[in-house]
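Illustration 12: Putative short-subunit dehydrogenase-like oxidoreductase (DUF2520 family).
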Amino acid sequence: MRIGIIGAGRLGTALAVAMSREGHVPAAVYSKRHASSELLCERLGIGCVNSLLYAVASSDTIFIAVPDSQIEDVVQNIIDCTEDSDIRGRVFFHCSGAADSSVLEPLRLKGGHTASLHPLQTFADRENGWKGLYNIYFGYEGDINAQGAAGEVVNALKGSMIHIGRDDKALYHAAACILSNYTVALSWAAGEIFNKIGIDSATGVKALMPLLEKTVKNIEDLGSMAALTGPVSRGDWGTVQRHIDAMQKSLPDISRIYRVLGELTLDMAVKRGDISPEASRIMRGLLSDKTKGCMRCSDVEEKDGF
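Figure caption equivalent — predicted structure in token form:
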């Protein structure tokens, strides 16, 4: 497999480094920022040509690892700078989670094999991002003729591949964003609450890390439904009322987040059969009321912790 990398950002760098470590040293790297291409080539120990034509012509499998908004432009630039023979028979992957493979249609029409191959992972660190590509899932959508190359990449990284329908890409990516991006946002919100009570946000988030790690472990071991704990799941509307009252006074924006997620948590608790219809009714009224919730208190024993 001769790999070409288009885009030398965090994901492109991670792919290049990880595949290089598995014996598939990229043949070429192209970036619109020459310095980025040069830096990655130096890290890989290859010469820096930084030519889009060269990246395509010297490779049989090309990764387009650029922001979603730039994929169409990159595809058009490839069409403009190459001959049909440079495209025919080559495999082109884009790495977007939300965009489907139709964005690569001009390459497919010229004989390329096209697909999206998206690593279900987050890449916040350019230096060590490659480590996160191992033992993960990759979402695949596209041309059946590109599956062999996709499988080779996934197997090299000891991963697994899941097949996504073209019309389902946006929902697939939304699920990933909810779990990854919004967890980060929630950690920020929790830090803001700590900051409000005189504990700096960094210390607050650090204090919550064991709780988060145990929660993730419970989800992994038990599944989401069985891992659910807390006052909403046990029908403790008195505690929820105190939470909402306190946040409504000092952190109303975070209070809105609490209510929305509380309603989702309540739906899970009802499906699990944990709380009575009366407790569910009171809790739902409390979480949906934007000004004042029910003032009744719960006699439910707190058994399951946070």
